[in-house]
């Protein structure tokens, strides 16, 4: 730690005072009940210490294609080593680490996937998501510099649109595919919490390749649907159900299309600064008729009660993007109220690490 603290130490709670005392730790080893608690805390601390190594083991398994390979059937260490050009002794260590992560197990001479390892290979977009963390981990390689605020980050380069930059076709394709593949779970959790059956026309702003609208189309065949996103993104979308119309434009520079009585922003706000979000919400308010429904769905901060997933992973990820922010329900609500929206509700999320839904109305 460099630099002096300017305030004298403040009083601490008694449990913290105990945990700060080396004498207490020596004593705890001799008292069975306290020992159990102290050891559980010790294990939790060790898990914190080794977290990065766990993630890198997972990254190696994904990038070497080992989990995908084992999804085809069991293999020997020798074959896996040969296939991936990893020396045999190092492959053995990697597979044992994967066993400790409960992703694989060895029976006789053959490595098999566990049910968790098998589930990993079929969750849409999960392997791609792990792979693209290369940029995030590069940014976090110097965590002190990262928290002090670097000039540039690799992750910002992965998502060029966040600065309003024009994007090329390969970039549009790369990040839209990543988002579309992870959209399945987001759409499922969003549609479990929002009922569009009273609506006639939904406009999905920043809708990427239309994965969310395709899920809505399957659920509500009579609903008119409009996909709005940057030109390069809508142009590279795969063929979509007939009820979806594509409109190209930028929510920074263009008005949003009129005519829809509901508007969704799925995983859009957290990419952008408060100023950009305020502008976007003002445009959404303009585009909706009286009574119009706004749906926001993305992982949200726990606010005063930080959430174990969103206040670590998403808060730091969006900070690494340099323009984004993982906001709490209260923070988004303040921005919504400033834009004129009322009747703001946010049901408890089923899986906060997948998404949280917030709805509001224009009246
Ligand atoms: C994180 S992705 C989410 C995509 C999709 N809603 C989903 O959840 O899979 C954000 C989307 O916002 C779009 N976007 C970013 N800036 C935009 C802008 N200025 N105007 C329109 N769309 C924009 C991106 O192209 C991208 O498709």
From TrEMBL:
Residues 137-341 form the O-methyltransferase C-terminal domain. It comes from the Bacteria. InterPro entries: COMT-like, COMT_C, COMT_dimerisation, SAM-dependent_MTases_sf, WH-like_DNA-bd_sf, WH_DNA-bd_sf. It holds the Pfam family Dimerisation. The keyword Methyltransferase applies. One of its GO terms (molecular function) is O-methyltransferase activity. SUPFAM superfamilies: S-adenosyl-L-methionine-dependent methyltransferases, Winged helix' DNA-binding domain. The keyword S-adenosyl-L-methionine applies. GO terms for biological process: methylation. Residues 47-121 form the O-methyltransferase dimerisation domain. Keywords: Methyltransferase, S-adenosyl-L-methionine, Transferase. PANTHER family: O-METHYLTRANSFERASE CICE, PUTATIVE (AFU_ORTHOLOGUE AFUA_4G14580)-RELATED. This is SAM-dependent methyltransferase. It comes from Stagnihabitans tardus.
